């Protein structure tokens, strides 16, 4: 639908002007999908799509930061993505490391904090170490949180939270009567993040694929047919403009 549409600098500026800077989403989440199909369309290996997708990550982080978005959550690797061929999984892990090596200095200089959601202990050691280095270096940064889903699944996050909660009940640290939505939230990877205001999924799929299941209860969704490697600044602007036209009622009137 929007794929391949050329938006020149002029239109980009026009679009940007339509954004109400006083009503920005605080937290934007993106399911970065369509790398494989982008590559297939060009008779390229799937890894070429992932590589192009990584370039979009670099750009979108910068755009979000310039817009003063406080939290950006990116789905990079799901608990189900291990089902893919070994070579593709390894390629994705190597790209993750490459991304950190290219971008970490700039991210840190721009006061961005990197954090992850998902069980990173299961990542191959070379990738886990690099991720831990990024988390550690940026842990005191305050401008924006870049929250990356790595070996992340919404259901496994909830189960993990319940297990930790039960353990705290057993240890007498919390009593069952005291468990409510706010106290349960502390057991999720996103304990220190507000829920996403806007969830973006490119690639034409109309599903959430196990992403932030607990957190998206009242999130606004923005779907698009374009593949993630074609996702540019203007698409983020379009999503935000659409979001600002919505009437969020949270169950009220
Ligand atoms: C998203 O692109 C990247 C990851 C899931 C890691 P895909 O690789 O899922 O691309 P499609 O959906 O096959 O086009
Ligand atoms: C979701 O995309 C996971 C990531 C973007 C990391 P998938 O390509 O894995 O999702 P499905 O298989 O289309 O649901
Ligand atoms: Mg996909």
- How far apart the termini lie comes to 33 Å
The CATH class designation is: Alpha Beta
Poorly predicted ranges: none
Assign a percent range to the helix content: 40-55%
Sheet with the most strands, sense and barrel status: 6 strands, parallel
CATH level 3 topology: Undecaprenyl pyrophosphate synthetase
Tell me the CATH superfamily: Decaprenyl diphosphate synthase-like
Structure report:
By secondary structure, this protein is an alpha/beta fold. The protein has one domain: Decaprenyl diphosphate synthase-like (Undecaprenyl pyrophosphate synthetase), CATH 3.40.1180. It contains eight helices and six strands; from the N terminus they run H-E-H-H-E-H-E-H-E-H-H-E-E-H. The protein has helices at 9-18, 35-41, 46-66, 86-109, 125-138, 154-170, 181-185, 233-245; strands at 27-31, 71-78, 112-117, 144-152, 198-201, 220-223. Helix 5 links the parallel strand 3 and strand 4. Helix 1 (9-18) packs parallel to helix 8, helix 3 runs parallel beside helix 4 and helix 4 packs parallel to helix 5. The chain is globular. The relative contact order is 0.20. The site of one 3-methylbut-3-enyl trihydrogen diphosphate (IPE) has 11 residues, from strand 2. One 3-methylbut-3-enyl trihydrogen diphosphate binds at residues 32-37, 77, 81, 92, 203.
């Amino acid at each position: 639908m929007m794929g391949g549409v050329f938006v020149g600098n002029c239109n980009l500026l026009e679009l940007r002007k339509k954004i109400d800077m006083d009503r920005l989403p605080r937290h934007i989440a993106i399911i970065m999908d369509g790398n494989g199909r982008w590559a297939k369309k060009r008779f390229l290996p799937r890894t070429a799509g992932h590589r192009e997708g990584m370039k979009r990550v670099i750009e979108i982080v910068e755009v979000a930061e310039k817009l003063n978005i406080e939290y950006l959550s990116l789905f990079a690797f799901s608990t189900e993505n291990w089902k893919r061929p070994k070579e593709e999984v390894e390629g994705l892990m190597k790209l993750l490391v490459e991304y950190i090596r290219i971008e970490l200095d700039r991210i840190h200089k721009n006061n961005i904090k990197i954090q992850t959601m998902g069980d990173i202990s299961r990542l191959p050691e070379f990738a886990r170490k690099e991720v831990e280095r990024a988390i550690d270096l940026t842990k005191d940064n305050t401008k924006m949180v870049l929250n990356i889903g790595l070996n992340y699944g919404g259901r496994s996050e909830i189960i993990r939270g319940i297990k930790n909660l039960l353990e705290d009940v057993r240890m007498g640290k919390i009593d069952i009567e005291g468990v409510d939505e706010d106290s349960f939230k502390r057991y999720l990877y996103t304990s220190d993040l507000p829920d996403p205001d806007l969830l973006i999924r490119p690639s034409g799929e109309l599903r959430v694929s196990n992403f932030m299941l607990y957190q998206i209860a009242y999130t606004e969704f923005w779907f698009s047919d374009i593949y993630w490697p074609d996702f540019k600044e203007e698409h983020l602007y379009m999503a935000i403009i659409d979001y600002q036209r919505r009437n969020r009622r949270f169950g009220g009137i």
